[in-house]
Amino acid sequence: MFAQAAREQDLELIVNMSHIQSRPDARSKATQNHWLAEQVFDWSSVPTTNLRITFFMQWLLYISGLIRYGRYAMPFNADSRFAPIAGSDIALTAAKIFAEPARHSGQTYTLTGPVEYSHEELAAEVSRVLDTDLQFEQVTVTTFLELIGQPDDTAKLKHFEVTIDQQEGRLAGTTDTARRIIVQPLVTVEQFINEHRPLFELDYAKAVGEAR
Length: 212
Fold this sequence. Notes:
Blueprint: H1 2-8, E1 14-19, H2 29-44, E2 48-53, H3 59-62, H4 64-68, E3 72-74, E4 81-82, H5 87-99, H6 101-104, E5 108-111, E6 117-118, H7 119-130, E7 136-138, H8 141-147, H9 154-159, H10 162-167, H11 177-182, H12 189-195, H13 197-200, H14 204-211
Parallel strand pairs: 1-2, 2-5, 3-7
Antiparallel strand pairs: 4-6
Helix pairs in contact: 7-12
């Protein structure tokens, strides 16, 4: 529907946000649909730039409530690797592309954050920044959805086939594409945690009150 509307309105450029592991035989229906969206925009003949993006740093916000109480739980293998990217860097990349449509039309860019981590290493980095002791804990997808208060989210449940993609290394590695497009350093995990620090730490007065 969007592609048809874009053709009718003669849009100058579409910036399409996709998955880094986008492919026709993806296990996750969401990832497969992203691949299909890339094809549809191609068929539409509307100039398009595809952004194939790794996991956002915002994933940490899903478990910020757990982190406040000293628990770091994710439904991923501890050794699976990826380079998380901040949503703000994705948005700025898209804005820069829109500012120069002719330069970026027809391109597919892979966007990652500046540093690759295993999930266990990422837990250690969050621990360092918060000056606390967080041990990575792998839980089932069902348990994870219960922990974040979304036990009935069937879309997420099905999408977590992406855990296998990670184990196969489909999200591993880094690129400097986003940094080159926005012409500035990308947000680090430390900066992201500090920007959202109140979400990851208990308010001391509140904590003391609860203890009483």
